[in-house]
Specification:
Elements (H helix, E strand, L loop, with lengths): L1 H24 L5 E5 L2 H11 L6 E5 L14 H8 L3 E4 L8 H4 L8 E4 H5 L5 E2 L2 E2 L7 H18 L4 H27 L5 E4 L6 H7 L2 E4 L12 H14 L3 E5 L5 H8 L7 E5 L12 H15 L2
Helix pairs in contact: 2-6, 2-7, 6-7, 7-11, 9-10
Bound molecules: zinc ion.
Zinc ion binds next to loops.
Length: 300
């Protein structure tokens, strides 16, 4: 009798676990998409358009968590594991998600943004530069891939995703043209970053020369005073009138650089690298428009 009861308890526990797993994977039968960072989440929402309600879409790095300091919770691991589509950057900061992604769904898909760029990925500090979303050209490529994959998972709405993607791509292209117009009429084509440097893709697209306090985005090392003096000399040489910092900068390096220039009278502009945003308040195109306004000041 005892043995029968324990078998029964075991059976009930397994049944409960299985039902938990089912509700987890398909809450109300919707397919789920997990995006590691904000840009791909925003692109996906734009491509889904009116159909967004028919999916469960989540973003792992929300609420201002910095990309480079992200530590997944147990809940994050479950979210990744039970998704039908996982869209991630694929660099040092979120490349680990593919190891966690062991979903049971046979249709499950992975989109590694860096991989889709192939040779278009920039090398930096003997590593690949993962800040691929800061190029409007790259964004167009990513949207096309996302739209195509959504159409495979949900063929009934593939045409709509394609149309939405085309409309969004037009906006990306229009903004890109505005960037090019600003660069074409700029007084100079030099940017001085008294900061980390996640904007290599944008500078490549626009043919801009960047002098930077750090070679990449890592701030593990201290920038030397010597480097600050070198940046000040670049500013004097190129006639730059504004120093660039990135979001969340304390601007101390910028002040040091400015105090070493001849005029000591430069403004500071901020470019948003979207490495720690709150998705609810953000919009990729609006952020890139604001970045254009900052660029306009920095190049004139
Ligand atoms: Zn970074």
């Amino acid at each position: 009798m005892k043995r029968l009861i324990s078998i029964l308890i075991c059976f009930i526990m397994i049944a409960v676990l299985v039902s938990c797993r089912v509700t987890n994977t398909s809450d109300t039968g919707k397919k789920s998409i997990v995006c590691t960072t904000f840009p791909q989440y925003d692109w996906t929402m734009n491509i889904l358009g009116d159909k967004a309600d028919e999916w469960n879409i989540s973003i792992l790095l929300d609420g201002g968590t910095d990309l480079h300091n992200f530590q997944p919770s147990a809940e994050d691991i479950i979210t990744i594991n039970t998704s039908d589509l996982l869209i991630y950057v694929g660099g040092g900061s979120d490349g680990w998600v593919e190891d966690v992604f062991k979903t049971n769904s046979a249709d499950a898909e992975l989109i590694n943004l860096m991989q889709t760029l192939g040779d278009g990925v920039l090398e930096r500090d003997r590593d690949y530069d993962e800040h691929v979303w800061l190029s409007l050209e790259n964004a167009e490529e990513f949207c096309e891939v996302i739209s195509y994959r959504l159409g495979i998972i949900d063929p009934d709405n593939a045409a709509e995703y394609n149309r939405n993607c085309d409309a969004y791509t037009e906006k990306l292209e229009a903004l890109e043209e505005r960037y090019e117009a600003v660069v074409d009429t700029a007084k100079h084509k030099t940017l001085v970053f008294a900061d980390r440097y996640p904007f290599a893709y944008l500078c490549r697209d626009l043919g801009l020369t960047a002098h930077t306090a750090f070679s990449g985005c890592s701030a593990d090392t201290e920038a030397s005073f010597e480097r600050m003096v070198e940046l000040a000399a670049e500013i004097d040489g190129a006639g730059v009138s504004a120093v660039v910092v990135i979001d969340s900068s304390d601007r101390k390096l910028a002040q040091t650089v400015i105090s070493n220039t001849k005029t000591k009278n430069l403004s500071t502009v901020e470019l948003n690298s979207m490495q720690s945003v709150i998705a609810e308040d953000a919009d990729y195109l609006s952020i890139m428009e604001k970045n254009l306004d900052a660029l306009k000041i920095a190049l004139n």
